[in-house]
Every structure is written in C-alpha cells, then in structure tokens.
Automatic annotation (TrEMBL):
Protein name: Phospholipid-transporting ATPase
Reaction(s) catalysed (UniProt annotation): ATP + H2O + phospholipidSide 1 = ADP + phosphate + phospholipidSide 2
GO biological process assignments: Golgi organization; phospholipid translocation
Gene that this sequence comes from: atp8b4
Compartment(s): Endomembrane system; Membrane
Any matching Pfam family: PhoLip_ATPase_N
UniProt source species: Dicentrarchus labrax (European seabass)
Length: 1189
C-alpha cells in the first residue's frame, strides 16, 4: 500500500523538517535520483515489444505466423515469416536498448556526483542520489546545486551568495541570493546540527521564478520566497561555501518538473505506413474474398468431377468450407505485398543515414573537437520535412560574449565598421588593433580598432575623458583583484562587464568600491570619488545614475540608459549603431549645485523610509534630478553571434522554414538579437510587439470580434514580411484562463505594438487567431518565457498546425521543448550537456543546422521515399502474379514460384540493390542542396511519398504483374521447344516468370537511380549473378539427391534457360514492362519539370545572396539590463562589500507608441495600390501617349 500511496497521493503542501530523516520519510517524498531513460532490465522486453507492435505491420505478421502453423490452410512453411519477423524485432530492440543504455549512463553520471551532507554531527560525502529531503548539504564555489535547497548561511556577509542560472533560464549573468537573518549565523557545524526548523511550503511545481513557504523555528514564523532558494541546476559562483536545507529532490525539483516526459517519437512516414498497411490489408482481404468465391464456384461446378480419381478429405467436398480455407491460404500466399523485410530494410537505411551524419566532416567543430551525432535513428527522414524551428537564443544563436565595438563622443564616431562582406576596417582607415601596452592594468583580451581614440585620450580631450570616467563610475560591478594588477570584474550583465572593461583599457580603471567611495586609476593616477547616491534602474526607468563628489568637491550626476529614454530624438551616430544590430546605450551627465543637492537628498532620505508607495515616491525624485542632462555620447556593444547564424537563418527562410526564437531574455535583448540575425529587418513592413503593459492614454480597447477583424486585415494586406514578438505573460493567458480578454494596440512611426493585459485570459478561439497571426508573420520571437512555456508554444503549433517541428537549444532550460518537438537538437555549448542528452541530434554550432536539414534531412527524405515507392512496386509485381495464376489453377492456392524463390526474393535477390538506392542515391549533390534551398520544399509539402504516390506505384506494380503473367502465358500456349515439344510444365513457366521478374525489377531500379556509385553497380549485377547461381544450384541433381523433398524443381532451370525462345519471352516481357514507365518519365521531365529537374539542368532558381545586409536605420535601444530590480541598495548598504561579490545591470528600452494602426496600414495599402494601378495604366499606353503625358 505504501507504494500505491506514493504514486497516487496528491501533495497539497510540503512539510520538511531539518535533520529529521525519519520524520520526512513519513511523507514518501521523492529521493534525489533522476531518470531520463525509458526502460530498465525488467520493463525493457514488454515495453519495447509493445512499442514495436504499435506498428500495424508487426502485428499483422504475428497473425500470419499463427495462421501458417495451421496445416489445413498453410501452403508456405512457417519459417518464411518467423525468421524475418524475429530479425526485425531483434534489430530494433538492440537499437533501442543501445540508445537507452547511453541515457542510463548519463543518469548514473549525474546521480553519482558527490555532495557533502551533514550526517550525525559531521560532513560526509554522499552521492547525489542518496541526498534526501530535509538534509543539510554544503556547497562550494563552482559546484552545481544538487537539489532545490533553502539557503541557510554562506561565507559571505549577511548570508549572501551568487549563482549562475544558465541551466534554468539560459542566462549566464550572476544573480544574488540571501539567507534569512536568523539563519545567516549558522556557520558552525554544531549550530547546524542543532537546527531543527520546519518548512511548510508549496508542493512541487514547475514555476522557476516563484516559491512560497514559511520557516517555523524557535516559536517564530519567517516568510520564504524565491530569493532564499537555490534551485537544482544552478552553479555557485564567487562564494567560497554555503549551507542549505533540501526542500525538493530528484524528479520533484523545479528543473526536472520543467524537463517534460521522454516520449516515443515516430515519423510522419511511419504513421502513413501504418495507414497504408491497413489499406493493403483491406486490399488483401478483397483479393482473398474474390479468390475464395472463385474456389467455391470452381469446386461446385468443376472440382467435384475430380473426386473420382483425386479423392480428398471429407470437408473438402463442401464448396463453401473449401472456399473458407482457400481464403486463409491466399491471405498467407499474398502477404508479401507488405513483406516484413520492408521494416528490416527501413531500420538499416535509418542506421546508415545516422552514420552519414556522424561521419560528416563539414559538421565537425575543430575548436571544440565535437562531431555531429545522430542520437536516434528513427527520425532521419523527418529532418527533410521541417516547417517550424523553435530556437533558444543564449548559447544557441549567440556566444553570450559582449564586445565594446564603437562609440560616439561629442559627435565623433570611433571604432570598427562591418561591411556587407563582414570585413573589419576602421573609420579612419587604420585597421590595426589598438596597442594598449601603455596601460599595465589593461585586459589583454580586449580589442579595439581605432587608434584615434587612444590619441584623443593622450591629448587629454576632456569630453573623451569624461566619457570613460562615466563608464568607470556608473555601474554596479564588483571588482576582485586576485593578485597585484590582475583584476576580475564580477558583473550581473555581460554588457556592464564589457563597458567597464572598455574604460579600464582606455586608462580609466575601476579598482575598488566601498559603500561610500569608488576608486579609479585614471591614466595611472589613483582617484577616489565619494559615492553620494545610486539611482537604481528598474524596468520602468530603463536607466541608472550615480551621484558622486570628485576630489575637487564638485557634485556630478552620471547617467546611462536606453537611447529611447535619454533622447527625444536619436543622434545620427546612435542610429547608425542600431542599424548595424549593435546594442546602443546613451551617456549623459549633469553638474549639481550643492544647495539644491542637499535639499533633494533630504527628500530622498525621507522617501526611503516611508512604508506606502515608497517606489513611486523614489521614482518621482529620480525623475526630478535627472532633468537637464547634457548628452556626452553613446556606446555600441556587440553581442557576438555564433559563426554563420545570419547566413543560416537566411538560407532556412529561403527553404520556407519558419524560425521562432523562444528566449528567457527581455524584450529589448530579444529584438536586438532578431535584428543581428537578420530575422527582423528594415525591409519588413511592420514589427508587432505583443506586451503585457497597458498604456492607457493611447489604448484602444477591442473585443474578440475586432481581433478577428485584425487578423482579416493582416491576411488582406498579405503581410508576409512581418515580425511578431510575444512575451511570457501572453503565453500564460493561453493556458491559465477562460474569460474574454482586452487587447490594446499602440502605434508608432516604425513599431506596431499589440499589448495584452494579463488580468484577462484568451478564449480558445482567440488562441487560434493569435496563432494564425503569428504564422502569417515571417519572424516570431517569444521573450521572457519559462522552460515549460517553451514546450507549450511548441505543443500549440504541433496541435493546431500539424507541421513537423524542430526545437534547438543548448541548456537545461531547453530540455522541455526539445522533448516536445518532433525533432530535438542539442548544441554542446557552454551551458552543460542536459540539452544534448535529451536531444535526437547534437552538434557544436547553430550553423550546422543548415546542413543537417537541407543536405542530410532532404537526402534522407528523398531516399526513403524513393525506396518505399520502389519497394511497394516490386512487391506488388512479385505477389499479384499469384492472383492472376489463381484463375488458371482452379483457385487452389498453388504458388506460381518455387517456395525457395518466395523466401529469398526479398531477402537475397532484391534486397541489396534497393538498400544501395536508399543509402547512396541523391538527386543533387550537397553543394546544390545548399545553393538552392527551395529544393527542400517538396518534403514540407509531403510530395515525394504520400497516398497518391503509393497508389501510382502500386498501380505500376499491378500492371507489371499482369504483364509478367500473361505475356509468358500467351507465349507458352503457342511456343514450342527446339525439338518440337511444347512448354507444358508448370515448373518451366515458374522459372521463366521468376527470372523475368528479377530482371525487370533490376532494370527498373537502374532507371530510377539518380546517382550511380560502384556500390550500386556491384549490388545490381551481383544480385543478378547470385540469383542465377542459387537458381542452378537449387535445381541441380546434386542437391536434389541430398534433399529430394525440399527441392522438387530438379533440372528445370538448366532445361528451361537453354531455350532461345525462353530468352526471347524474357526480353519481350522486360521491354514491355519497362518502356511505358520510361516514356512517362521522359515526358514528365520535359513537360512538367520539378525544381530538382531544373537544378540538374542548371536552370534552377537564381542563387540567393545570403550575405548579411547592413542595416542603415532603425530606432531602437538594446541596453541589456537584467530582468529584476537592481542591487544599488545592496551596494550602498555595504552588505556585499567582500571581494567575491557581484552585482547587476539594467532594463530594456521603452516601447514607443502611437495610434490608429489599422487605418494607417490600409491607407498605405491603398497608396501602393494606386501607385501600381497608375504604373499599370502607364504601361498600357502607347509610346506616343506616354510622350504626350
């Protein structure tokens, strides 16, 4: 019963007591063991067999096997079915077991990590899987957090610690956590052993940003929130050690709750084949019924006459019962229309395609020594049918490395420029990297490409010096000097680190800070500034300021923020930076009067102590003093993309693949990356931003009917070049509500914003409409989404669009969407291996996705489709000869061919040529596959193998079988041997048809091939040679003497194939069977050429220019502030003033707004229509009329 309760009990709240395993065991909480594998040693066989028999064909052959052991109805030996059935089951099981073994191996690697657990008064090393809820564990710097733990104390003052959450949300910037004051002093082992607090909190859930609980200790209650928790998957940074109490363990941790369930993925071709097998089975039953009726009629009218000299069993005299038995006999004989060897061959092909991916040196990353890996072998052809790609941003599209690229100071622009060919040159034609050797404290890794900026510094240009002084003072970075002159900056945002590092290299080195001072080294001279106030950033202000007093006693305010906040109109240089996809940040300053500052400071101190509306009052004061700023300049930070990302995205767009970016970053960062990747471009008609904010004075409230109109307008305008950006709040209302919603549309000169309040929820029909809107757009970016919401977006598209989806990511926060998508791709990057372990395919860089889809995916789909078409063709041609023969053998279920030919036809005689075609055939080479991305579209439209193609190839097979039977039958009825005797025996007829069949299907596969290799030649000619060798061997006198009952066709081949007339019949039948298909193929290529035909003739679509196009104008800000409130208050309080601490960054730029967007779009549409009509009318005029005009 305990096991039953553990699996069915719904936890409403969790009770966890520290250092009390016996108490916590009563609740049967999950241990810390994780499991991503599907099987164990006991469940493998039943579960794997269940999955394999979900294939209708496998179940079908199992039924046939049962029928074949009944002697009254079986005309074939049982081994003709059981051998291939067992073979395909074993091959598939071995493959699945191998895949799951590696999952077990990775699970064991994680479960066997070591952690220090406080047990019986001492710290003991325990494996992660042995950690239990309620245990107190010790973490050390750079260690992964073993479970979801409540932070109790740390080596830092006030119980602070710093963590990196890349595995959870993809962000590599550091975050601060702080323990409760009452537990922050529990730094002694004895005190921790005596700690017996009890935590009552929420049950396990997947909300990464929320935790609600209460600590009960010493008769007091202490509230707990997410800022007190360290979640599994985080890494402890810049903190020597910390202690925590385990709250959630194993599969109940928030990370694992977001990972989703491992599902059995099947391709669309697998599903189609299941349907086709049912069709074939119905067709087989129809043929069986026809032949059974024929047998009943034959026995009633003719068969009774044979009873005198061919007496049979008593039941055979009953015509109806004889027909019943004949039905099952023909079901067995005709079962080869769906041979079990088809599934064996499909598994072999998929395995070969997987090895081609693994062996592709063009997908091998030499920097990390990482090869591409197909971690599954069941989805290769699905790679050729992808319509939607869902991509993470951080670590997938970008390297998350910020580089100080350019700046504008006092109207002068400094720094490098990137032209359309990505060559780097300097504004002043001085392309050499700046030499910073004059500065002993410089960062050796920093590079800048404009020596004139150094010259301005050395000439003591006041504006340039003030610019870098601002960068060195206005931030929340913490310095750590590990040795003399060896500085390490600990920044919560990589932007902050890049800006402070730039100031450091240009001679303004940030050395140290205290709660009251900031110390710089300005051009080798130490200068200390008194820190008077930090005007912290948040998502509304989108800027931060510091007020300092310099050594001369002057009070200055330095401010940096989003350019859309600092200026009313952008400076041209800043517009240029934004046009290049760089993160622009405006810098300004203000001289403050001493008396005015003292008055303002008193107001600030008062506002800091009020209880109600404290934030609002502080915001008013900040706004008051930040007026009248003087513009100093602007910076441009480049978030370095991975190599080849814009080109890859452009190429995939040409293949009609829609790319959606799902990121945990905020709006501004997501937009900026969209522009950098060329996903958002200036040639797009509009960019819509769906946001959670409401701007009441510009808001237009519309109902669901209006939203439908909005969708209709978009369709009318045919906005194929539109980008749309969706934040997580909109995704939340997709899944957590049912009431009507309000939409707010706000319009500006360049950016259309669709704003949705989270207070209302989408109705189901509005969910469809919003999805339709997103699918109308060329680009979709979802920002600030949780891992589970990523999976929900993928599931939404899968459910409503029925398109093949691919998810790609590199962190644990991407595991859920990787498992949800049809195809999951993991990038072995900087965020661990969780995404790779959960993926179906993995490689080192995003750019390899282009080759995976357009080359390997397209080839796999093309080869698999051709293989299936040919396989069904040859098996219908092979099997339906029995159907025609039934009308001439009294419907007796006698086989045309020798039993050994039936057994070996699909296994030996025709298996290798079709495998060679399925492995090596290609319509165009890999260069042309990448050169013409539009060749990928037939796979998306499922054109190469569908129900229509299946019908055509089976029709061709039926026609071939008809000709194979009736041409030799007619010829043999009038033909005589060279000695004048007739061809009257069935064995000669059987050998003639069998030989003709093997030759016809070999010639046909030769005509169907697009690409000949030595292997193809070897397999085709080798198969024909093997056929004749086995034929003469099995029908020889020697083997008949050894096994007389098993090889009755003694001497038939020798006697039959020595006749010239037989070879003439074989030649005639072959020509008549092959020529019609050949004529149709030639006419189709000439009259209805496909994209492939055009490209093979070098008449394909024009090669697209995939190089990056430099953007020239766009007004947007991309200062990458962090998501949460800043830590300015923490810095000024002095709580974190230890060298191993860190702090924060800022917030996104303001979304501009306007109104009446629909009218503007319709007006613009009408203007375009008028212009086009006018130009059309002018085109219709005669030259004289145009001259007169």
């Amino acid at each position: 019963m305990a096991f039953w309760r553990r699996n069915t009990h719904i936890e409403k709240e969790r009770h966890v007591k520290a250092n009390a395993r016996d108490y916590n065991d009563k609740f049967s909480y999950a241990d810390n063991r994780i499991k991503t594998s599907k099987y164990n040693i006991f469940t493998f066989l039943p579960i794997n067999l269940f999955e394999q028999f979900q294939r209708v064909a496998n179940a079908y052959f199992l039924v046939l096997l049962i029928l074949q052991v009944i002697p009254e109805i079986s005309s074939l030996s049982w081994f003709t079915t059981i051998v291939p059935l067992v073979l395909v089951l074993v091959i598939t099981a071995v493959k699945d077991a191998t895949d799951d073994y590696f999952r077990h191996k990775s699970d064991q690697q994680v479960n066997n990590r070591q952690s220090q657990v406080l047990i019986r008064g001492s710290l003991q090393n325990e494996k992660w899987m042995n950690v239990r809820v309620g245990d107190i564990i010790r973490l050390e710097n750079n260690q992964f957090v073993a479970a979801d733990i409540l932070l109790l104390c740390s080596s830092e003052p006030y119980g602070l610690c710093y963590i990196e959450t890349a595995e959870l949300d993809g962000e590599t910037n550091l975050k601060v956590r702080q323990a409760l004051t009452v537990t922050s002093d529990l730094k002694d082992i004895t005190k921790l052993m005596d700690f017996d607090g009890e935590v009552i909190c929420e049950p396990p859930n997947n909300k990464l940003d929320k935790f609600t609980g209460t600590l009960y200790w010493r008769d007091n209650k202490y509230p707990l929130d997410n800022e007190k928790m360290l979640l599994r998957g985080c890494v402890l940074r810049n903190t020597e050690w910390c202690f925590g109490m385990v709250i959630f363990a194993g599969l109940q941790t928030k990370l694992m709750q977001n990972c989703g369930r491992t599902t059995f993925k099947r391709t669309s071709i697998d599903k189609l084949m299941n349907t086709l097998v049912l069709w074939i089975f119905a067709f087989l039953i129809c043929m069986g019924v026809i032949l059974a009726i024929g047998n009943t009629i034959w026995v009633s009218w003719i068969g009774r006459n044979f009873q005198v000299f061919l007496p049979g069993e008593e039941f055979q005299s009953n015509a109806v019962f004889s027909g019943f038995l004949t039905f099952w006999s023909y079901i067995i004989i005709l079962n080869t229309v769906v041979p079990i060897s088809l599934y064996v061959s499909v598994e072999v092909l998929r395995l070969g395609h997987s090895y081609f991916i693994n062996w592709d040196q063009k997908m091998f990353c030499r920097q990390t020594n990482t090869a591409a890996e197909a971690r599954t072998t069941t989805l290769n052809e699905e790679l050729g049918q992808v319509e939607f790609i869902f991509s993470d941003k951080t670590g997938t599209l970008t390297q998350n490395i910020m580089v100080f690229s350019k700046c504008s100071i006092n109207g002068q622009t400094y720094g490098r420029i990137i032209d359309v060919n990505d060559f780097t040159f300097n504004q002043n034609n001085c392309s050499a990297c700046v030499d910073f050797s004059f500065n002993p404290l410089c960062d050796k890794a920093f590079k800048f490409y404009d020596g004139s900026l150094i010259e301005a510094i050395k000439l003591e240009d006041l504006a340039v010096q003030e610019f870098f002084r601002l960068l060195a003072l206005c931030h929340t970075v913490m310095p750590e000097e590990k040795s003399e002159g060896h500085l390490v900056y600990l920044a919560q945002s990589p932007d902050e680190g890049a800006l402070v590092t730039a100031a450091r290299n240009f001679g303004f080195v940030f050395r140290a800070r205290t709660p009251e001072t900031i110390t710089l080294c300005e051009m080798g001279r130490a200068v200390t500034y008194q820190l008077l106030a930090i005007l912290d950033f948040n998502n509304v202000r989108k800027r931060m300021s510091v007020i300092v007093r310099n050594p001369q006693g002057q009070i200055k305010l330095y401010c940096k923020g989003a350019d859309t906040i600092i200026f009313d109109r952008l400076d041209p240089s800043s517009e240029e930076f934004a046009g290049e996809g760089l993160r622009t940040l405006a810098l300004a300053y203000k001289d403050l009067d001493e008396d005015d500052f003292e008055v303002w400071m008193k107001k600030l101190l008062f506002a800091s102590t009020v209880i109600e509306n404290r934030e609002d009052q502080l915001a008013v004061l900040y706004e008051e003093i930040e007026q009248g700023l003087k513009l100093l300049g602007a910076t441009a930070i480049e978030d370095k993309l991975q190599e080849g990302v814009p080109e890859t995205i452009a190429c995939l767009n040409l293949a009609d693949i829609k790319i959606w970016v799902l990121t945990g970053d905020k709006l501004e960062t997501a937009m900026n990356i969209g522009y950098s990747c060329n996903m958002l471009r200036d040639d797009m008609n509009e960019v819509f931003v769906i946001s959670e904010a409401i701007i009441a004075e510009y808001a237009l409230v519309i109902n669901g009917h209006s939203l439908v109109r909005y969708s209709t307008v978009l369709r009318y305008l045919a906005f194929s070049f539109v980008g749309i950006i969706i934040p997580s709040s909109v995704l939340l209302v997709f899944y957590f509500g049912s009431d009507a919603c309000r939409f707010y549309f706000v319009v500006t000169t360049w950016l259309y914003c669709c704003l949705l309040t989270p207070a209302h929820a989408l109705e189901p029909q509005l969910e469809h409409i919003l999805l339709d809107l997103a699918c109308l757009c060329k680009t979709v970016i979802c920002c600030r989404v949780t891992p589970l919401q990523k999976a929900q977006v993928v599931e939404l598209v899968k459910r409503h669009k029925r398109a093949v989806t691919l998810a790609i990511g590199d962190g644990a926060n991407d595991v859920s969407m990787i498992k949800t998508a049809h195809i999951g791709v993991g990038i072995s990057g900087q965020e661990g291996m969780q995404a790779v372990l959960a993926s179906d395919y993995s490689f080192a860089q995003f750019r390899y996705l282009q080759r995976l889809l357009l080359v390997h995916g397209r080839w796999s789909y093309f080869r698999m489709c051709n293989f299936l078409c040919y396989f069904f063709y040859k098996n219908f041609a092979f099997t339906l000869v029995h159907f025609w023969y039934g009308f001439f053998c009294g419907f007796s279920a006698q086989t045309v061919y020798d039993q050994w030919f039936i057994t070996l036809f699909n296994i030996v005689y025709t298996s290798l040529p079709v495998l060679a075609m399925g492995l090596f055939d290609q319509d165009v080479n890999d260069q042309n596959s990448l050169r013409y991305p539009s060749l990928y579209k037939p796979g998306q439209q499922n054109l190469l193998f569908n129900k229509r193609q299946f019908f055509l190839c089976t029709l061709q097979g039926m026609g071939t079988s008809f000709l194979l039977f009736f041409i030799p039958y007619g010829a043999f009825s009038v033909m005589v041997k060279e000695d004048g005797s007739h061809f009257s025996d069935q064995q000669t007829f059987a050998v003639t048809i069998a030989t003709t069949l093997v030759i016809v299907v070999s010639v046909q596969i030769g005509l169907d091939k697009h690409y000949w290799t030595a292997v193809n030649h070897l397999f085709i000619w080798g198969s024909l040679t093997v056929y004749f060798a086995i034929l003469f061997a099995m029908q020889s006198n020697g083997i008949f003497g050894i096994f007389p009952s098993n090889f009755p066709f003694v001497g038939t081949a020798r006697n039959c194939l020595s006749e010239k007339s037989v070879w003439l019949v074989i030649l005639l039948t072959t020509v008549v069977c092959v020529v019609p298909g050949l004529v149709v193929s030639f006419l189709r290529v000439d009259l209805f050429p496909t994209l492939t035909d055009k490209s093979r003739k070098k008449e394909g679509p024009q090669e697209q220019n995939l190089r990056r196009v430099r953007r020239t104008s766009s007004r947007r800000s991309a200062y990458a502030f962090s998501h949460q409130q800043g830590y300015g208050e923490l810095i000024t309080s002095g709580k974190n003033m230890k060298m191993s601490t860190v702090s924060s960054a800022g917030s996104p730029g303001r979304t501009p707004h306007s109104s009446t967007w629909i009218e503007n779009m319709l007006k613009r549409k009408n203007e375009v229509s008028c212009t086009s009509d006018e130009s059309g009318n002018r085109a219709k005029q005669t030259p004289k009329q145009q001259v007169r005009a």
